[in-house]
Amino acid sequence: MRKHSRLVFILIIVVTLLAVLINTPPQIIINYQSPKLPIINKAISIHKTFPGFYPNFLIGPLHIQKDLAFKEGLDLQGGTQITLEANMKDVPKDQRQQALDSAKAVIEQRINLFGVSEPLVQTAQTSNDYRVIVEIPGVTDVNQAVNLIGQTAKLTFWEPGASGSAQTASPSALPQGMTQVIGPNAVKTNLSGADLKQASVTFDQNTGKPQVQLLFTADGARKFADITKRNVGKVVAIALDNQVIEAPRVNEAILGGSAVITGGFTTDQAKTLSIQLNAGALPVSLSVLQQHTIGATLGSQSLERSLVAGLLGFVVIVVFMVVLYGRLGVIASVALTIYTLLVLSLFRLIPVTLTLAGIAGFILSIGIAVDANILIFERMKEELRRGKARETAMELGFSRAWPSIRDSNISGLITSTILYIFGTSIIRGFALTLALGIVVSMFSAITITRTFLKVFIHNK
């Protein structure tokens, strides 16, 4: 057991150092020089030579490349506002409000697919004008945002010659580039984006280049199998928004219900395409009326005050724990510091868009983490008063405090889940940061604090 505790202790130290490096601004690492550890200086010189290599070096074995800076919300850093006008010319009057609401839902799903970017999407109606107002935090490329919001992402599949399941298209109706890959006799199959179950970004195992993998529904898989069966040795073209993006040759029938679009994408392009395909087509066409940059809704002074309040609260908690529990409080404070580093690392890696509401959820989770330690220490004190040995009191303290810690944290996770599912974007950000904090706090209290106590008691 002691050997196991040492191994866990070493693992905790390694994870903590990794969290420190993730949360440390790169310029501080660059400027640091160690005269006694030349290998560190070598790593720093590599980082200086290749800007941006530092974050990728840390997580390189996972083949993940991310910008590890904190993502800030509209209230902290501002962003871009785009006003879109919906063309309701061909939509019946009694269905226009529903079409506008549907367009809003599709746009919000596209730009907030994982619920962490926290955009603000609103509708406005005056007389016969139907508009959608979109505010996206931290966007620098406005054109990319407009393309992501406004494109329909209509996916079609084309084959050569006529067939019973294909609809003949006139040469003028052919997608751009179709005559070059198939010819003027190309026909559209009955397989479309409506048969798509899921689109995701993957990487080619041979080249490492990004691609979009398509997973069809049961009916779509059957259609795709029929298309590939009758076109073995021929070219089947894939068109997106009336333009051919890929024209692979079918070597054999594909019965698994999945396909891959390569198309020479960059990672961002592949991600954008997958989001568009997953979100579906817009119910009405949209045109951009205006676009401009907006400032932060809260001033820098508000942010500074909030951060000072959070830091002050952390210091007060540490002092409280040390005064009340002595050396146990010191251990709890160290575990709380590690907990804070781990949560901030997750915020960077996911990444989570931080607003003041999200910061509040994080600070609240710190109090929950301390609460678990208090329950454990009080149970330990009870066992010590009964004459139990330190190691026995520690084990009993953890085992008897665990049901209370588990139940309270599960209730918090249930509340966070409800807020995330039914809340708006800002409330969802609060729920997400709170849930992440709760999960990590359980790990901190049960694993980190327990391991430190075992090592401390053994050395004592």
Question: Which helices and strands occur, and which strands form pairs?
Answer:
Layout: H1 2-23, H2 26-31, H3 38-49, H4 53-58, E1 71-72, H5 74-77, E2 79-86, H6 96-111, E3 120-126, E4 129-137, H7 142-150, E5 155-160, E6 166-168, H8 178-181, E7 186-192, E8 196-203, E9 210-216, H9 218-230, E10 237-240, E11 244-246, E12 258-261, H10 267-279, E13 286-294, H11 300-325, H12 327-349, E14 353-354, H13 356-385, H14 390-422, H15 425-459
Parallel strand pairs: 1-14
Antiparallel strand pairs: 2-4, 2-13, 3-4, 5-7, 5-10, 6-7, 8-9, 9-12, 10-11
Helix pairs in contact: 1-12, 1-15, 6-10, 11-12, 11-13, 12-13, 12-15, 13-14, 13-15, 14-15
* Backbone shape: elongated
Q: Helical region count?
A: 15
Q: Count all strands and give the number.
A: 14
Kindly report the average pLDDT value: 77
Distance between the termini: 16 Å
CATH topology of the domain at 155-265: Gyrase A, domain 2
Low-confidence stretches: 26-66, 163-167
Query: What share of residues are in beta strands?
Result: 15-25%
Biggest beta-sheet profile: 5 strands, antiparallel
Strand order of the largest sheet: 6-7-5-10-11
Radius of gyration: 28 Å
Structural class: alpha+beta
Question: What would you say the CATH architecture of the domain at 155-265 is?
Answer: 2-Layer Sandwich
**The CATH class of the domain at 155-265:** Alpha Beta
Give the SSE order as H and E letters.
HHHHEHEHEEHEEHEEEHEEEHEHHEHHH
Percentage of residues assigned to helices:
40-55%
Structure notes:
With 460 residues, the chain is α+β, with helices and mostly antiparallel strands. Among the domains are: 1-66, no CATH class; 79-152 and 285-294, 2-Layer Sandwich (Alpha-Beta Plaits); 155-265, Gyrase A, domain 2 (2-Layer Sandwich). The protein contains 15 helices and 14 strands. β3 (120-126) and β4 (129-137) form a beta hairpin. It is elongated and about 90 Å long. The relative contact order is 0.12.
